[in-house]
Amino acid sequence: MKAVWFENFGSPSDTLIFGDLAKPQVAAGEVLVKMMTTGINPSDTKKRAGAFPNLLDAGLVIPHSDGAGVIEAVGEGVDSARIGERVWVYQAQYGRRFGTAAQYVAIDSCRAPVLPDEASFEVGAVLGIPVMTAHRCVFADGSVCGKTVLITGGAGRVGFYAIQWAKRGGAKVIATASNEADQKLCKELGAQHVVNHREANWAEQILSLTGGDKVDRVVDVEFGQNLPQVLKCLNIGGVIATYSSTVVPEPKLPFKDMMFMDITLRMVIVYAMPEQAKLDAIADIEQVLKNNSFSHRIAHALPFNEMAKSHQLIEQGGFGGCVVVNINN
């Protein structure tokens, strides 16, 4: 099969190899998926760059956790009726070497949920990390119905979906965005108020817009950088669910202030989500896809032989939406 892999750490052009590898054999409990698309996330580019020094100890790595395709074969214990199903794949390159940047992937059946006919394979390739992360951040601490949820970086890959999940859950949504176009997008997605997180004291702007009412939950894209402002507008007993802290990777916590606010601090990563949380997210994703009730943004859809460019795009940033590579379609 055709695949992309790396055997050394470094830049995309220096490390990513496009060539032929053996087609995987399906094992018990697994499905063999003919991949149509693969999704590229920041975690994928960081792995390739060397964020996990032991990653290559057992040999080459086919990158990417997310993707979509069609089940071609099933292993022992898997219903043969699944053959021919359209599926989306998540968590493919977690705790294992072979991800979705290939014409085929063999993976545990539960990591290949059904992709409704209403959704394209390109959309299927962005469901794993962006959509499931957003779902967990919004719903991990219970219903948001009637609550006020602040989503920082609302126009980002995760924030984009977090706004939609929170709105669907019955929350009043406030978002932050750094330019007029992104602010407009956040409002179109369902945010009632949007402030610019690049401006000083943006928490005061939020309180001014709400008449002094503080927020109940926060879905945060830059925990260390945003914490001082978040604490100014978070309610007693509030929750911060964060999935990234890139600008300030080792934040210093004002423990006493946070303790007296009775704050819950939740760190979110798809791989470590409880299995029930994954099942809940998958069920909700299936419903919004069937109903065409969510917006999606595929900023770049590239051919298979331009995988290096896809990684470069993620690393460079400067655009809204996800990056997908087409494989077999």
UniProtKB/TrEMBL annotation:
Q: Could you tell me which residue ranges the Enoyl reductase (ER) domain spans?
A: 11-325
SUPFAM superfamilies tied to this protein:
GroES-like, NAD(P)-binding Rossmann-fold domains
Spell out the InterPro entries in the cross-references.
ADH-like_C, ADH-like_N, ER, GroES-like_sf, NAD(P)-bd_dom_sf, Zinc-ADH_QOR/CCCR
- Membrane-spanning regions, if any? none
Q: Which UniProt keywords apply?
A: NADP
Which superkingdom?
A: Bacteria
One Pfam family named in its UniProt record? ADH_N
Keyword flag Iron: no
Which PANTHER family would you find in this protein's record?
A: QUINONE OXIDOREDUCTASE
Spell out the protein name for this chain: NADPH:quinone reductase
